[in-house]
Write a structure and sequence with these properties.
Helices cover 20% and strands 23% of the residues. The chain contains nine helices and 17 strands.
């Protein structure tokens, strides 16, 4: 695998080897025009807490609170009952860092989607839940996502899905309210943003003895001893089926086929991990090179390295991954095998 660029090394040098760096941080230092910005508006009760939470989500680049989908193009905080607007958070995020599906998963994590016109201690139409899009092509994706979420609930999900209408920016004192008032009211536990997005209890970490019995020699050497498989030797190098790639050790999802590309380097390559919390990043000075190693956050399996010579339109990163560290789950088997939460990540 090639030597890491000077730009990435300079970034990594700012951190100790024990610290982790994110793909967003690595990307930001070397790009100005490689973002793929997307806009979405979400209503989830009091917008103070919703904004406070999403400011902590990696890949979110801008937030603004306002009022959406009322009956008038003018309103204010004290007129919401009259104009029927919902307290709403405007989000701008970089799809080259975080998938739209992950943004929606975070949204559903912090709301009760079956509660009508009430979130936390706040009740009234202005506190209803909704997802409001500005691109009509997003409608089906959102509806499909909600359909998957519905399977988790006995009660009907009452989240509105509609085109954005009559959006009005909220008063200045509402903007970044919790940033300016850290002890202010919040119905959302902001600490959730620092925790794994999905339940990881089912992704158990086997013992070394178990791995010796379940992995072949190459898989064990790569994941446990930081070996590198021979280039062009992986079955996944020229592999293009739809699905997800999971850690061969824990079975936790790591990459989506939607982010896979042929880099011509001889190893499976991806532009980003499936979720922003899937990987750890550390400085690697082995073999006389300066590189950024990527490991699975759950189980710490060695996967490969990330470089800054990937497709610019997709963010400029290339996750160069040993196929021996991966197992492929085809799209048509994902629900059967317990990966329904990750279906929206496969386009």
């Amino acid at each position: 695998m090639p030597k890491i660029s000077k730009i990435v090394f300079l970034f990594v040098a700012l951190f100790s080897a024990a610290q982790f760096i994110s793909s967003e941080q690595a990307a930001k230092i070397k790009r100005n025009n490689m973002q793929k910005l997307k806009e979405i508006y979400v209503a989830g009760g009091c917008f103070w807490g919703l904004e406070g939470y999403f400011k902590k989500v990696r890949g979110v680049v801008q937030t603004e609170v306002g009022y959406a989908n009322g009956t008038s193009d003018k309103t204010d905080y004290y007129s919401l009952k009259k104009t029927d607007h919902a307290e709403t958070l405007k989000l701008m995020f970089d799809e080259n860092v975080v998938a739209f599906a992950e943004i929606l998963a975070h949204f559903f994590r912090v709301i009760d989607p079956t509660s009508l016109n009430k979130q936390g201690n706040d009740a009234g139409r202005q506190y209803r839940t909704g997802i409001y899009y500005t691109d009509a092509r997003d409608k089906k994706f959102i509806e499909d996502f909600v359909a998957i979420e519905q399977k988790k609930y006995a009660k009907k999900i009452v989240v509105e899905v509609a085109a954005l209408a009559n959006y009005v920016k909220a008063e200045s004192y509402h903007q970044n309210y919790l940033g300016k008032n850290p002890g202010g009211y919040c119905h959302i536990d902001l600490r959730l943003a620092e925790k794994p997005l999905y339940d990881e209890s089912k992704f158990s970490v086997p013992s070394k003895r178990e791995l010796r019995m379940t992995l072949n020699d190459t898989q064990y050497a790569v994941t446990q001893e930081k070996a590198t498989e021979r280039p062009f030797s992986s079955e996944y190098d020229k592999f293009n089926e739809k699905g997800i790639y999971v850690d061969i050790v824990t079975k936790k999802p790591l990459f989506s086929s939607s982010d896979k590309f042929d880099a011509g380097c001889g190893w499976p390559s991806f532009t980003k991990p499936i979720t922003t919390d899937a990987l750890n990043y550390t400085e690697d000075t082995s073999h006389g090179m300066l590189r950024t190693e990527v490991t699975a956050k759950r189980g710490n399996s060695h996967l490969g390295h990330v470089f800054d010579d990937g497709p610019k339109a997709q963010g400029g990163l290339r996750y160069c991954i040993n196929g021996a560290s991966l197992e492929f789950i085809p799209l048509e088997k994902m629900e059967e095998l317990g990966y329904s939460n990750y279906i929206p990540y496969v386009k």
